[in-house]
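Researcher: We're teaching a course module on how sequence relates to structure. For the next exercise, students receive a sequence and then see the predicted structure as tokens, so they can try to spot secondary structure elements on their own. Here is the exercise chain.
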Amino acid sequence: MLTGLWQVADLEREGPLDVERAATALDAYAAAGFTTFDMADHYGSAEEIAGTCASRAPHRDGDMQLLTKWTPAPGPHTPATVRDAVERSLRRLRADAIDLLQFHAWRYADPSWLDCLFALQELRDEGLIRHLGLTNFDAVHLDMALRTGIDAVSNQVSFSLLDGRAAGAMAEVCLRHGVQLLAYGTLAGGLLTERWLDADDPGPRGVKTWSEMKYRRFVEAAGGWDRLQALLRAVASVAEKHGVSMANVAARAILDRPAVAGVIIGARLGRREHIADNLRLSSLKLDAEDRETLAAASGALDPIPGDCGDEYRRPPYLTAAGDLSHHLDELPSPYPVRTGPGGRRRVDSGTVWEDLAGYSRAVRTGDHIAVSGTTATHRNRLVGGDDPASQTHFIIDKIEGVIEALGGCLEGVVRTRVFVPELADWEPVARAHGDRFGGIRPANTLVQAGLIGSGYRVEIEADARIVRQK
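Model: And here is the predicted structure for the students to work with:
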């Protein structure tokens, strides 16, 4: 069990916390054996609080593990800006190295997320980061990062009896690559506890903390308050059987899932501390009947839409605010746009091929956007390793990015042409294409053809029209 410090930022809506007093509150967790603390660069003063606690006796011998995140603004970052971010967290944590640095990407159509990971990996090799992790990555892009050579050891995602997205493709990717899941939202902001059992729906104005606001949106997405109550009754029945709390049951159910290394339980320092109750989790063992009861109750819920982390990337935004206003000011264009003769606009993606052969990645004339044949190349790197499906997903990310830069969207794609050098690759490529275009259904042609360049398993070109909003 990890102790989560997101609530620090929520508490500081009322004013800054006293760092020394808050650090003293962490001492009680460490003394009880909860020595791993999870935070982020944007969780208020959480890094300063944890760093202050870890620097004092009796913790100076390194018995605490400090996990943090870097959630950069979208857009390009240089190795220097990445280093600045890591060194800022190191100063706050009073540490020589970050035990686990977890990276969040806002959108995949902007390939700068890869640049950030490459730079972070260099800092890990330098010794400023002990382990590199990810947070809120979906299964496709976790797999893509790993196949591209990023040595991530973990992915932190929402995972609870209310939100089972991580049990599907995400768990499969983790087990395939030996990556561990760190589960947050396991108690759904406290909604999966006795406090809310048989309680009336408080409505959006009746929840006060950020976590309650956020996870009430999950409840709405899962089918509403009555569905939550049915789940709570199932959890309560298992808790009563074992003489433990509902929080223990909800956390144990996720901790027992494949690929899960830890569950993160939030702490409202100086307000609500459940250390004694959390200690009971280690002795709780769920049996087959318990798992069936909980699975049936969770299975009656509507699935949370999308994959892990999608709540931060597309509607419905299941955040405290219901949008990204707490997180972002804007989403910059994934690629710079240049204007040529006759008002024709074009985009380059920075590959060596564009300058060599004198072409653009995409060109817009009027309402038409033509995208050149695109491989899984980012700068001078091959993305997705030798996996045809992963390469396909990156290519479609890239196509989406250049279309967005020119004022369009992926939904405006009307034709794709797919080229594979090995006919045996047609099915994984086609399935990846279907994952991304299944709801768009452009005209499509797939042919076997030789490709120029080493390691490429697929090339795709596309045509799109600007979708006019009514």
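Model: If you want an answer key for the exercise: The mean pLDDT is 95. The radius of gyration is 24 Å.
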